[in-house]
Design brief:
Layout: H1 8-11, E1 42-44, H2 55-65, E2 78-87, E3 105-114, E4 129-137, E5 140-147, H3 160-167, H4 183-191, H5 196-203, E6 217-218, E7 223-226, E8 232-241, H6 250-259, H7 263-273, E9 279-288, E10 294-295, E11 298-299, E12 315-324, H8 330-334, E13 347-348, H9 353-369, E14 441-443, H10 454-461, H11 465-480, H12 485-498, H13 500-510, E15 543-547, H14 556-565, E16 569-574, E17 588-589, E18 600-603, H15 633-644, E19 649-651, H16 657-662, E20 672-674, H17 680-688
Parallel strand pairs: 15-16, 15-18, 16-17, 18-19, 19-20
Antiparallel strand pairs: 1-14, 2-3, 2-12, 3-4, 4-5, 6-8, 7-8, 7-13, 8-9, 9-12, 10-11
């Protein structure tokens, strides 16, 4: 054995006496220059814009952007769809963008995605989801690049490589995939406490959406809108789903990860194909642009903060409908390139330091992913309006340019292209608001960025008892996967600053003493808009499993038609494929389905044995066989899962109760009902509209 020096750098010198890479005692640039700050971008003053001269920011993010090819470094696994956006016409007073004029229809392409996993990971991982929308307007492309959570882990783009490195698989063994339940992630967020609010959202049910169709979208950052007279407003963008905001249970997410890793992308594509087109309304929270970039004490330039809807109501300004699936995944969903700097006249950016860094990062990333600067010529990225950018050549140049003078000024091409004229009464270009800025160049942050806990507490205490219980379970599982005791203890201390009961519950699960809060965190008013429970929602596209025996059920066709008439999707589940006696096609077999596919179950009776028509079980050779659903252990499992997941279970006759008895379920349990066939569809719609039977397993508190 070698006798290592006490100094780590000296002990790792190679035989030539040269220090290997990554061995300097202090942090440096890639050229070896020492660094004293890797947390803050170089800005004009504490709240000013980021400077292009910040070499460390550009080098750090440039290297991060090019770490992997060809898939995206983050948001690698996604699903896309085409559609249209129709303006309500009520935004004209505060935004001059053409696509917001009354009744204006604009083509869109939307890409939903997970963040942490690779292209081959599962859809239902606990994670943030991307919600990126490309508007093909008559004034150029506008990209609204957001998430399903309104806050982010970091306040400055300088930290983006750090948080992603922490959540990605650990570098020594490249595991775990698409999971935050490991040492490096919790090490980072327990030390970088601005991440606590976003982490809490991820540990909530928001981290495992039921469907992309049932997911909110947020622009995260504060943007600036410019009205027709040049008056500015600050704005936060919201997407509100028609079907409401709903989530999977933890059990459902795990089942889907094994039984159907493509659960979300399949759900989206199947809904569109079935004509249950997903819809969202675009809304805005408006704030006066008075130069402070604050609203009722909330710093609007801090991307770890959101503004509760009770303080600033969301004004709805248009509706988006997704009605066409991509014809080729690679050509469209994989090659689509979004950028928060793709703006149109009437919409501008602010000095949010995370947004400022994204303006560099997104463009830089496309150079590696899409092979050069001409990615805007890929069909899914092409603007629908005429383009004359005077750019030439480069990788993958498809345009055949005319003219001999790709420069300005010129006389050889008649001075073309000309500069755009300012609109009547306008004194500045519509794409750049003339914001005043001044200050010393420095790496720092405003004092208002230092509150890392009050909004996390607001979010947690706004949720129902069931939702808070799910958060406790999520933290207990995630931290239970951490092998470093110091990390667990440090994160539980962070939870104590958010809520004492939350910290105590997680501490008990981890075998730790419940810590006391050490900080004086402000109690903000709660917001009912943050809870997913308590409302009634449309049932369009909800899937109903009708479980039948070998020959089906005498009224199965009428049942399916009644369910379809309510906007839900009936799926016949039988012992084998084919058709029922009424000629209704069987959609699933006992062997190929699990509870995750259905929002409710209908048990449609039990038929008497049919001699040789019986189908042997696949799960156990020589098992007793009957065509009664209750006799098949796969149906028993299906019913047990649906019951645990608080889904409605309706029986059409007394014979159906055989499955309930075999599953150990009492017929009088909430959401377990014996109903008449005529009343079935109405009862289903009423129960499914609440998403789950929340009273089945009430939580305390």
């Amino acid at each position: 054995m070698t006798n290592e020096s006490a100094h780590p750098t000296e002990s790792r010198k190679n035989r030539e006496g040269k220090a290997p890479s990554q061995s300097a005692e202090h942090l440096t640039t890639s050229q070896g220059s020492p660094l004293s700050d890797t947390d803050h971008s170089l800005k004009v003053g504490e709240r000013g814009p980021i400077l292009l001269q910040d070499h460390h920011l550009r080098e750090k993010i440039m290297h991060f952007d090019h770490e992997r090819i060809p898939e995206r470094v983050v948001h690698a696994r996604g699903a896309g769809a085409h559609g249209t956006f129709t303006s309500y016409g009520n935004a004209g007073d505060f935004c001059a963008a053409d696509f917001l004029k009354p009744g204006k229809q604009t083509e869109v392409f939307v890409r939903f995605s997970t963040v942490a996993g690779s292209r081959g990971s599962m859809d239902t991982a606990r994670d943030t989801r991307g919600f990126a929308t490309k508007f093909y307007t008559d004034e150029g492309v506008f990209d609204l690049v957001g998430n399903n959570i309104p806050v982010f882990f970091i306040q400055d783009g300088m930290k983006f490589p750090d948080v992603v490195h922490a959540v990605k698989p650990e570098p020594d063994r490249e595991i775990p995939q698409a999971q935050s339940a490991h040492n490096t992630f919790w090490d980072f967020v327990s030390l970088h406490t601005p991440a606590q609010a976003h982490t809490l959202w991820n540990m909530s049910d928001r981290g495992i959406p039921r469907s992309y169709r049932m997911m909110e979208g947020f622009g995260v950052h504060t943007f600036r809108l410019i009205g027709p007279e040049g008056k500015p407003s600050l704005v936060k963008f919201h997407w509100k789903p028609k079907l409401g905001v709903h989530s999977l249970t933890w059990e459902e997410a795990q089942l889907a990860g094994g039984a159907d890793p493509d659960f979300h992308r399949r759900d989206l594509a199947d809904a569109i194909e079935a004509g249950a087109f997903p819809e969202w309304e675009l809304g805005v929270q408006l704030f006066e642009d008075d130069g402070t970039a604050t609203f009722q004490g909330i710093d609007l330039l801090d991307p770890t903060k959101f503004v509760p809807e009770g303080l600033a109501p969301v004004q709805l300004i248009g509706k988006m409908v997704l009605d066409r699936n991509p014809s080729n995944y690679f050509a469209e969903t994989e090659q689509v390139a979004f950028h928060p700097g793709h703006l149109v006249p009437g919409i501008d950016i602010t000095d949010d330091p995370l947004l400022q860094a994204r303006l560099f990062s997104y463009l830089d990333t496309q150079l590696t992913r899409l092979g050069g600067p001409n990615f805007s010529q890929i069909p899914v990225n092409q603007p629908k309006n005429p383009v004359n950018d005077m750019f030439r050549d480069g990788f993958h140049q498809h345009n055949i340019h005319e003219g001999v003078a790709p420069y300005q000024p010129n006389s050889l091409d008649g001075g073309c292209p000309f500069m755009a004229d300012l609109a009547e009464g306008q004194s500045f270009p519509a794409l750049e608001y003339p914001q005043e800025t001044s200050g010393a160049k420095k790496r720092s942050e405003p004092v208002s960025f230092s509150d890392h806990y009050s909004q996390a507490r607001l979010f947690y205490r706004s949720l129902s008892a069931q939702e808070r219980e799910h958060i406790k379970q999520a933290y207990s599982f995630e931290l239970g996967k951490c092998t470093d005791a110091a990390i667990r203890e440090r994160q539980v201390q962070c939870l104590a600053e958010i809520d004492g009961d939350l910290a105590a519950s997680v501490a008990t699960a981890l075998g730790l003493e419940a810590p006391a809060a050490q900080l004086d965190v402000e109690d903000l008013p709660t917001s009912s808009a943050l809870s997913q429970i308590g409302s009634s929602w449309p049932v369009d596209g909800r899937q109903i499993g009708i479980v039948v025996g070998l020959r089906g059920y005498p009224q199965d066709r009428a049942l399916a038609e009644a369910i379809s008439a309510k906007g839900m999707t009936p799926l016949i589940v039988a012992p084998h494929a084919g058709a029922t006696d009424s000629g209704l096609e069987i959609d699933r077999t006992y062997f190929t389905t699990r509870s995750i596919e259905f929002d409710a179950l209908v048990l449609a009776g039990a038929l008497p044995p049919v001699g040789d028509a019986r189908v042997p079980l696949d799960t156990k050779a020589g098992a007793d066989v009957s065509d009664s659903p209750a006799a098949d252990p796969r149906v028993v499992l299906l019913v047990q899962e649906a019951y645990r997941q608080s889904k409605p279970i309706l029986c059409l006759d007394e014979a159906s109760f055989g499955a309930l008895s075999a599953a150990g379920i009492a017929g009088e349990a909430p959401g377990v009902e014996l109903v008449d066939a005529q009343a079935l569809a109405g009862t289903l719609a009423e129960l499914v509209a609440a998403h789950r039977v929340w009273g089945r397993f009430p939580a305390e508190g």
